[in-house]
Amino acid sequence: MKAIEVNNLSFAYHKQVVLDSVSFSTDLKDFLAIIGPNGGGKSTLVKLILGLLTPQKGSIKIFGKSPKQSAHLLAYVPQHVHSNSDFPITVLEVVLMGRLNQNWLGRYTKKDYESAYEALRKVGMDKLANAKLSRLSGGQRQRVFIARALCMNAKILLLDEPTASIDIDGQRQIFELLHQLNSHMGIVVVSHDINVVLGYANKIAHINRKLYMHEAPCKTTKEAILSTLNSAHGHLCPVELVHAQTCNQNHEEEL
Ligand SMILES: Nc1ncnc2c1ncn2[C@@H]1O[C@H](COP(=O)(O)OP(=O)(O)OP(=O)(O)O)[C@@H](O)[C@H]1O
Ligand SMILES: [Mg+2]
Predict the structure, then answer these.
(1) Mind giving me the DSSP string for 28-48?
(2) Domain extent for 63
(3) DSSP three-state, residue 157
(4) Structure pTM?
(5) How many angstroms does the Cα of residue 44 sit away from the middle of ligand 1?
(6) Tens place of pLDDT per residue across the chain (255 aa)
(7) What is the CA radius of gyration of the chain?
(8) Which of 51, 85, 110, 192 has the fewest beta carbons under 10 Å from its own?
(9) Nearest 10 degrees: CA dihedral of 18, 22, 24, 25?
């Protein structure tokens, strides 16, 4: 059975079509990277997979069921993880939130704490369990949110630009961590940096209203991928980074 199966999916906000006849599937052990320009529809696709939005056309199945029925199998790290410096929450408290849906009594059990510490160990943050979240760097904070997602015992981890505003070493460390986690769960990650994702993903989906899937990419196929992307969109994007603003600007200039 496929982990994620998307068939002929179209989605519009009001009358603005954001995703047009998108189809793809992933297997349980896939590491799928979603790349594409700003406004291309990446976050919208992630929200549809999570069941937070409903498609106007087409279908999404997660392990053969609707996204809402499979919600407990999906863990999500959102695009914007802000920290309110006035809010004195600790690393451990954030991670424990991942246990809330498994904990009907509203009080954390010994098992919840064990699970939280195990998740923190997996992301290399157990020594900072009692630190205030507001004191952490962007990369450390992102690890904490990954640990919270791990606590949910999900089968697929979805991350929306987990490395935005993290330097290149920090980015690679997060992707190394995702690579390790991929040994026992599926990974779906939105990213802007094709160089980074090429080293880790076994599938790359490029989204700009339409979706173009590249299976089993590797560094040597980078030029081929970029050439497909460029011809697919009829203009040249910057080679090193499919960053989007630049691509969008190109679009606007052409119109
Ligand atoms: N809640 C919303 N209501 C109306 N339009 C929206 C909403 N969310 C997103 N959009 C629009 O849908 C399009 C796709 O947005 P989306 O957030 O999916 O893009 P993205 O690929 O994730 O971009 P980014 O790289 O900037 O995160 C954009 O034009 C955006 O303005
Ligand atoms: Mg987005």
Answers:
(1) TT-EEEEE--TTSSHHHHHHH
(2) 4-81+154-254
(3) strand
(4) 0.84
(5) 6
(6) 899 999 999 999 998 999 999 999 999 999 999 999 899 999 999 999 999 999 999 999 999 999 999 998 999 987 666 656 567 889 999 999 888 866 566 688 899 999 999 999 999 999 999 999 988 888 888 899 999 989 888 999 999 988 877 788 888 888 999 999 999 999 999 998 888 888 899 999 999 999 998 887 665 556 666 665 665 554 433 333 333 333 333 333 333
(7) 19
(8) 110
(9) 70
- The Cβ of residue 146 has, within 10 Å, a number of other Cβ atoms equal to 24
Would you say the CB of residue 44 lies under 6 angstroms from ligand 1? yes
Q: Please give the number of the atom of ligand 1 that sits closest to the Cα of 44.
A: 18
Domain count, the chain: 1
Q: Which among 205, 162, 189 is positioned nearest to 36, based on CA atoms?
A: 205
What CATH number is associated with residue 189?
3.40.50.300
Angle between helix 110-122 and helix 138-150 axes, rounded to 10 deg:
130
Does residue 23 belong to any structural domain of this protein? yes
Q: Which residue's structure tokens are 């929306």?
A: 160
Tokens of 44: 């919208």
> Hey, which of 14, 19, 38 would you mutate to test ligand 1's pocket, going by the most ligand atoms within 8 Å of its Cβ?
38
Q: Is residue 125 part of a domain?
A: no
Any domain includes 30: yes
Q: Give CA angle at 151 (5, 197), nearest 5°.
A: 50
Is residue 192 domain-resident? yes
| Ligand 1 neighbourhood includes 41 CB (under 6 angstroms) | yes
